[in-house]
Specification:
The protein has two helices and five strands; from the N terminus they run βαβββαβ. It is 24% helix and 26% strand. With 62 residues, the chain is of the alpha+beta class. The strands form two sheets. A three-stranded antiparallel beta sheet has the order 4-1-5, covered by helices on one side. Strands 2-3 form a two-stranded antiparallel ribbon. The protein has a single domain, classed as Alpha-Beta Plaits (2-Layer Sandwich), CATH 3.30.70.20. The mean pLDDT is 98. The chain binds iron/sulfur cluster. Iron/sulfur cluster binds next to helix 1. Keywords: Electron transport, Iron, Iron-sulfur, Metal-binding, Transport.
Amino acid sequence: MVKITVDMDKCQHYGQCCFEAEDVFALDESGKLVYSKEADESRRADVESAADVCPMQAITVE
Ligand code: SF4
């Protein structure tokens, strides 16, 4: 399993991560980031891409 943590003190809810792994990251109706804390190993590459594009470097992938 891929473990995902977003530092919500850093996250500015821009949503770039959502384009890389839309099954893991999403903006809710109020524009706030919501995300899955675990994803299948097969999703690792896209989750790592999401971490790479985050302008705040708020996403940690383990
Ligand atoms: S890309 Fe980074 S700052 Fe933007 S919503 Fe995702 S985690 Fe938050």
